[in-house]
Amino acid sequence: HSFLNRLYRGTNKDCIEQLRLSKNAFFNLCRILQEKGGLVRTRNVPTTEAVAMFLHILAHNLKYRVVQFSYCRSKETISRQFNDVLRAVMKVSKDYLNFQPCTLEGAEANKWRWFERCIGALDGTHIPVTVSPDERPRYRNRKGDVSTNVLVACGPDLRFIYVLPGWEGSAGDSRVLRDALRRQNKLEIPTGKYFLVDAGYTNGPRFLAPYRGTRYHLNEWIGNTPQSYKELFNLRHASARNAIERSFGILKKRWSILRTPSFFDIKTQIRIINACFVLHNFIRDEQQTDQLLEVQDLEFLSVVDEELVHQSREEVQNNVIDDITTIQATEEWIRFRDTLAMNMFANY
């Protein structure tokens, strides 16, 4: 097949640009999807071609008719192969979306050393979807876009630990978290561990939030030094929690299908979102260097985080009632945060 032959003969850079994976990672993925995901080659289409078509569509948000031209396949064949690969990725998802201890070095280790029992950060992100006209009001978020609100937890190493897509865009983050804590495939947090969350969530056991009404977002600190234990705590909390914003940035840069509504039915769109998170972790495990991370970090340095400031304020106003049933604030947890913050300031 001419397109695949060009990829095989081309450079790693070509393969990453087209499929988002290095050649080695691509062949490893094909093997894993065959051995563990139950992906079977059909009479006419080898698994490598099926996986390449799938990745091509996710990476560039391609319509079937565009893929039809590149791969010289019928729309029916492309559709069937796409769904087969999607099913295989979903089958191996538990092997990749999980908590794995990580070793950090340098500046990254320094950011997290203040939060020793913390296993990562948790937040919601909106991903555009296409739904039927009668469902649009439920999926319309605060900005007026039609989206699904995806609850995500990631580790300090930018690997995703837990993903819950599917909630309507109109649902507040706290409501989605409440569901994640109660559903069958629930968010499980090991005893004694916790996540960093933003001010839209209640500061309660297992979820450590910043102090409200105190400077928080990183751009607010430019040229300023912390003047109190609350300010220092918020600065360090923001520096570490930034991991989830960075991982969202990389994810959406890598898979352009997540940046605009796609033509699939909503159930398939939700599974595609899940698959993108699985593939993100696969790439983090397989490829030592991630150029997208460097690009993302450069952008973070230059972008003022106004979006997040507004979001936190609005989430606080919208979700006060939700918060109470999701995470109960306890005296013990409030003391835990105060002690942590005061110890930081004493050693500052």
In summary, what is this structure?
The chain is 54% helix and 9% strand.
Descriptive notes:
Strands 3-2-1-4-5 form a five-stranded mixed β-sheet, sandwiched between helices. It folds into two domains: 2-91, no CATH class; 96-346, no CATH class. Mean pLDDT is 88; it is low at 302-325. It has helices at 2-9, 12-19, 23-35, 47-60, 64-71, 75-91, 93-96, 106-112, 136-139, 173-182, 229-254, 266-286, 291-302, 306-318, 320-326, 331-346; strands spanning 118-128, 147-154, 160-168, 194-196, 207-208. The protein is built from 16 helices and five strands. The chain has 348 residues and is of the alpha/beta class. One of its GO terms (cellular component) is nucleus. It is found in: Nucleus. Residues 122-281 form the DDE Tnp4 domain.
